[in-house]
């Protein structure tokens, strides 16, 4: 079961990341991994599989444009976890350092352009961890996952199925309910007018006290600019996963 869970976590990570030709090619393997993934009955397995089939038949450029519009404009649905906790405060820099230390201690190496709090990257990391660690990490970010699920559902985004699945894995899917009413009245922050307003309100910073601070200033813009340079695996990598106890509700 540990290997099936690792494959499933990797598949969820890939679906949540920027869609490219490599993903389309790997969709049969992604779907097989989700189908075999140990999940509780409450998890949206069938909607995930239906989404895989839809992606396979969709125009790739349209899928990419929709992804950029949803995740690279505005902050409400950012996949950078610390954006929802620390915003652009200095606390975010220390949180990045602490998370990097966790990765390094586990022998997980990041690429040059990868930010440690990017949710797809965290899921890849979790695919290398024992089941009890996966449950612990999901539990620690459950409030962010619940808010993200509610916001993506509001936009009829298939990506909402990923954080919802994670919540189901620890029996916390009901926490999304607490955010749906709040989210229903939130103004969109990814429209041209909203983006222009942010640019007008935020002061321009011409220096940074550290390389880390510099990276944080332009995290979202940097990710958008480097889309064409990112290299994704042609298939789902299957890390070695040590034997472990099971996540609650998945046995």
TrEMBL record:
Keywords: Nitrate assimilation
GO MF terms, alphabetically ordered: metallochaperone activity; unfolded protein binding
UniProt xrefs under InterPro entries: DMSO/NO3_reduct_chaperone, NO3_reductase_chaperone_NarJ, TorD-like_sf
Keyword Oxidoreductase (UniProt): no
Species this protein is from: Halomonas huangheensis
Residue segments, region Disordered: 217-251
GO biological process: chaperone-mediated protein complex assembly; nitrate assimilation
KW Lipid biosynthesis (keyword) present: no
Superkingdom: Bacteria
Name used for this protein in its record: Nitrate reductase molybdenum cofactor assembly chaperone
